[in-house]
Amino acid sequence: MIAKALTIAGSDSGGGAGIQADLKTFSALGVYGASVITALTAQNTRGVTAVLDVPPEFVTAEIDAVFSDIGFDAVKIGMLSQAPVIRAVRAGLDRWQAKAVVLDPVMVATSGDVLLAPEAIETLRTELLPRAAVVTPNLAEAAKITERPIAASAEEMVAQGRAIRALGARAVLVKGGHGEGATADDVLVDEAGETWFSAPRHPTRNTHGTGCTLSSAIAAGMARGLDLVQAVRAAKAYLTAAIRSADRLEVGGGHGPVDHFHAWWTERG
């Protein structure tokens, strides 16, 4: 029986992030993927031009439809732009006793466009952080959740990870990809302490969807039975290779997508 994962997230019409990135990642890693769409975005590699939120009652209908028939080994949550949708998702997770929930607290797109209403951040804190097996904020998202300045050191990353975990999440992966230096360093804060993951930083502007891709890769690993540290390590390696190969895609004129199928699309043109 194939491992199955669900993405609950927004749609990216440009195909590089959101549910499109999640489903590509699931497929690349040998996991069957299904989706619950929480918002429609009109966007491309240059930016977001419009957002249409899906009504919470329809999000509920989507959740009930897929859980009642398919069932899932892991759930990845991405863009939830409004508080009522966040509450609908939390209720659905509880109703279906969802396991291995990976929460990517999407707040701002790579282009800089805001994707989470400021008033919804508190709802995210109270409703979804306590439901997550792991939360995967980048530096800016961790700062917003903890209401602190953006972490400028390893110690500050760990401190913010601990603060987010204190809000109820079982584990927190603070991602350092938006930082500086020769390596992109992430820290996993859980009950065992801190575990660091490092990879060489690759110079490219084609990083659209990196956060979505990493969190969905973690969910895919957990769906296949990996423990959290193993899933994060495998996801980090997958994303690093996808970034390294991204320039070969030549998609769009802005922040292009990573190469989700780098291991299979060996020929171009």
Description:
This protein has one domain: UDP-N-acetylmuramoyl-L-alanine:D-glutamate ligase (3-Layer(aba) Sandwich). The chain contains 8 helices and 9 strands. The strands form 2 sheets. The protein has a 6-stranded mixed sheet with strand order 3-2-1-4-5-6. α1 packs across α7, α2 runs parallel beside α3 and α3 packs parallel to α4. The chain is globular and about 45 Å long.
Topology, element by element:
Elements lengths: L3 E9 L5 H11 L3 E13 L2 E7 L2 H14 L4 E4 L5 H13 L5 E3 L17 H8 L5 E2 L3 H8 L7 H12 L6 E3 L8 E8 L2 E8 L9 H14 L4 H17 L25
Parallel strand pairs: 1-2, 1-4, 4-5, 5-6
Antiparallel strand pairs: 2-3, 7-8, 8-9
At a glance:
The protein is α/β, with parallel strands linked by helices and 269 residues long. The chain has helices spanning 18-28, 56-69, 83-95, 121-128, 139-146, 154-165, 210-223, 228-244, and strands at 4-12, 32-44, 47-53, 74-77, 101-103, 134-135, 172-174, 183-190, 193-200. The protein has one domain: Ribokinase (UDP-N-acetylmuramoyl-L-alanine:D-glutamate ligase), CATH 3.40.1190.
